[in-house]
Specification:
Chain B: One of its GO terms (cellular component) is cytoplasm. Chain B: GO terms for molecular function: calcium ion binding. The complex is a heterodimer of chains A (137) and B (640). Chain A has 137 residues and is an alpha+beta fold. Chain A is built from four helices and five strands. Chain B has a two-stranded antiparallel sheet with strand order 1-2. The longest helix of chain B has 51 residues. The chains are: A alpha+beta (137), B mainly alpha (640).
């Protein structure tokens, strides 16, 4: 069962997938899903910054997997790809995952030694993401 | 490789003694000779730099030994160069004649550790040690004085030899210090001295399991070094010495270390209870020349409340981790218990009684269990610290306690903060990060909880944000209530801006509250003593469009958000004050009382209104959620 979490700011900042092979496929998926994200954003059209709208929901389902999106106020997009076979995941769980991701992401941002735009190399962030993925999937 | 006598520089043969042979061959191997015997230029240059000779001397050496002519360093040239450098270090001119005689070994700061490890030979290390000392001071009287000292820990020297071979396979920890030889931490470079510290430190580097004997003779070994003037070196020694004392727990911050950290903190931020901003801390810690990744990790470990700034305990933790890292300790994955802010608090608070007993010196000696000779040496060694320490053995406890007191509320605060994760700290520090940081999860309340500086800025942003319905109805909503732009909302209770009571009546949307307004104004008008209720926010003209309802009332309801509501000062406070100045004093008392009563009534009313509105907000929110979920359900079906 394959899952992946990616953080993209129009270029990948962070990619983690379990299992670690087949990352290329996830790259591809994420890139294509970015289009859907754009579509959703432009479709909404409001200038609100409500958290509710940061969660973009199921971007699109394919037969293999489902893609969920989340965009922060600074246009950093989080994308989670899960196997379609994993039907036990509910929307709320995905939301909470995004929330946790966002929290950890802002922690990384707070670090003055982190230059925005660098790939994220923080070990703490890695560990959080790993535990989240293991526990959820 | 033709060792021994075939150092053919300029045709003259130079004989090498045994020790020299060993030394040179080691250095030769160090410089990565390639197949034809030529040495890597980079390594040679490094070695030459490490010899601490001035550039012209090095040039001369290169020329004389023949490498310049040849264009590379072959074996012969290299040996010749080494000999010439030894001569130069001994003060002789760089000439071929000077190397004909017997010379001490050349000293390469930072490189010699290799030799010591490869050749754990008592004579060699003794020699090199004494030469280290000798070369640094450059004066004859020094080494003899050092001899007795060296002889004293003779047995311990053996021990040192014993565990230096085990170190040779594990070269990597010692290597890391030598990698950052020049360490201008305090932005002061006294190259020789600082390097010396490292050079001496490196062979004695404690690998993680330590013997207690090693600290003692290791620290003794440091004795003969000349007093180092830079804060850096002295701190380093201080740190390693003291750290070494607690060899069973390298993560514990000792008193001297804490003092030093306090001094450093003060240099960055005079107020001990305040915070060091991220960028400031970044610049400061970057000076330590650790790789950014490690600094980043250290930051993550030490910034427990994740606010992008360091409190004093966090700063100590970060500093301590940096020091530990520079000493070769690997960084832990999680913060050790002794470095957590709460822990350190407790430890140091209990320390003052013991400090009161004796001076720090005594304490140190009791800790180390070393003779008073060391004490004397300590004082001479650290001229900077002793003046500080000796005058204030008594001040120290109070200082500690006082520094801790601001720490402890800060600590609690930090702990609280860490639980509630306040994020956006100040708008001044990290611009980009600020923007990102101010995103949800819980955007509005954070700024006002933590900060009073740029609150006007924050609140403006907030008002725009929360103008669209702050997502969480549970927020104490100074932002939620006010900023709805006047005529557009259901919640028409929002009062418009008033400069005076007349305007209130004119605003049609705020019919509900216009009465309140008037009432309030009349009540407030009378009371000069309502100063406490109307804080001096005369700059309230920033916010005009109905941003804050009655400020005095608000103050009572939301005491914690006081600091955040400066811009929410009602405009009428200006009017109020002017009016009040016109009142003659005799009426004050009565009017004050009336004002108080009226305020209380309005308070009550407003609180009720507030709760009702909260309810409404929640309801609307829920509706919205359901609608959105419905929409989502429908959407995939609609779009294929």
């Amino acid at each position: 069962m394959q899952t992946a979490i990616m953080i993209v700011a129009n270029y990948p900042l962070y990619i983690r997938s379990v299992p670690t092979q087949g990352e290329l496929k996830f790259h591809y998926t994420v890139h294509t899903s970015l289009d859907v994200v754009e579509e959703k954003i432009s479709g909404v059209g409001k200038a609100l910054a409500d958290q509710r709208e940061l969660y973009l929901g199921l971007l699109y389902p394919t037969e293999d997997y489902k893609v969920y999106g989340y965009m922060t106020n600074s246009k950093v997009k989080f994308v989670i790809v899960v196997d379609s076979s994993n039907t036990s995941l509910r929307d709320n769980e995905i939301r909470s995952m995004f929330r946790k991701l966002h929290n950890s992401f802002t922690d990384v941002m707070c670090n003055p030694f982190y230059n925005p735009g660098d790939p994220i190399q923080s070990k703490a962030f890695d560990s959080i993401v790993s535990t989240m993925m293991v526990q959820a999937f | 490789m033709d060792q021994g006598s075939a150092a053919g520089t300029g045709g003259t043969l130079i004989s090498l003694s045994d020790s020299e042979q060993r030394c040179y061959s080691g250095l030769y191997a160090l410089c990565q000779p390639d197949s034809s015997g030529k040495l890597a230029a980079g390594k040679v240059a490094e070695l030459f730099r490490a010899s601490q000779l001035p550039a012209e001397t090095l040039h001369q050496v290169t020329e004389v030994c023949g490498a310049k002519r040849l264009g590379y360093f072959g074996c012969g040239q290299f040996y010749g160069a080494l000999k010439l450098m030894a001569a130069a270090q001994a003060g002789l001119p760089v000439r071929l004649e000077s190397i004909a005689g017997e010379l001490p070994l050349p000293v390469f700061v930072g490189i010699t550790n290799e030799l010591e490890m490869r050749y754990p030979n008592q004579p060699l290390t003794n020699e090199s040690q004494s030469h280290i000392l000798g070369s640094v001071t450059g004066s004859a009287p020094r080494p003899p004085a050092d001899r007795p000292v060296l002889r004293h820990p003779d047995t311990s020297m053996d021990k040192q030899e014993v565990w230096s071979p085990p170190q040779s396979p594990g070269i990597s920890p010692p290597r890391s210090p030598s990698a950052y030889r020049s360490y201008p931490y305090g932005a002061q470079r006294n190259g020789t001295d600082t390097l010396l510290v490292y050079e001496a430190k490196v062979p004695g580097l404690p690998s993680v399991p330590q013997e207690n004997s090693s600290p003692s003779h290791y620290s003794l070994r440091l004795q003969p070094e000349q007093p180092v003037i830079t804060r850096v070196a002295s701190v380093e020694r201080l740190v390693e010495r003291v750290e070494v004392d607690y060899s069973d727990d390298p993560w514990r911050i000792t008193e001297e270390q804490r003092e030093y950290y306090t001094i450093q903190f003060r240099s960055l931020q005079p107020d001990l209870s305040a915070l060091i901003m991220g960028t400031v801390a970044k610049n400061f810690f970057t000076k330590s020349k650790l790789p950014i990744l490690e600094l980043s990790h250290i930051w993550e470990l030490s910034d427990v409340d994740k606010d992008g700034a360091l409190t004093f305990p966090e700063f100590c933790t970060a500093f301590h981790l940096i020091v530990a890292r520079k000493n070769g300790y690997p960084l832990p994955e999680t913060l050790p218990a002794t470095l957590r802010p709460g822990f350190v608090e407790a430890a140091v608070v209990t320390a003052p009684p013991s400090e009161k007993i004796g001076s720090v010196d005594l304490q140190m000696t009791s800790r180390q269990g070393v003779t008073t000779k060391q004490e004397a040496r300590d004082e001479s060694r650290k001229p900077e610290f002793s003046p500080k320490r000796i005058p204030e053995p008594h001040e120290k406890p109070t200082q500690h306690v006082s520094t801790l007191k601001p720490d402890s509320p800060q600590e609690l605060d930090a702990n609280m903060k860490s639980r509630t994760r306040p994020r956006s700290y100040s708008s001044t520090s990290i611009d980009d990060a600020m923007k990102k940081v101010e995103e949800p999860p819980t955007p509005p309340p954070r700024p006002q909880k933590t900060h009073s500086r740029a609150s006007s800025l924050d609140l403006n942003k907030l008002f725009q944000q929360s103008g669209q319905g702050a997502k969480s109805g549970w927020l104490p909503p100074p932002p939620a209530l006010p900023p709805r732009p006047p005529a557009t909302q259901i919640f028409s209770f929002i009062p418009g801006s008033e400069k005076s009571s007349q305007k209130v009546v004119q605003q049609p949307n705020f019919a509900d509250f216009s009465k309140f307004r008037e009432e309030q104004e009349t009540s407030v008008r009378g009371g000069l003593s309502t100063e406490d209720l109307t804080p001096p926010k005369l700059d309230s003209t920033v916010v005009h469009q109905g941003h804050a309802p009655q400020k005095p009332v608000r103050r009572k309801i939301h005491p914690e958000s006081q600091s955040a509501t400066p811009p929410s000062a009602t405009p009428y406070s200006a009017a109020t004050l002017t009016k009040s100045t016109q009142r003659p004093p005799p009426k004050q008392k009565r009017e004050i009382q009336m004002a108080i009563r009226k305020n209380r009534e309005t308070n009550a009313v407003l609180t009720r209104l507030n709760s009702e509105l909260q309810q409404q907000l929640k309801v609307v929110h829920r509706e919205r959620v359901t609608l959105e979920s419905q929409l989502e359900l429908l959407r995939p079906v609609a779009s294929t």
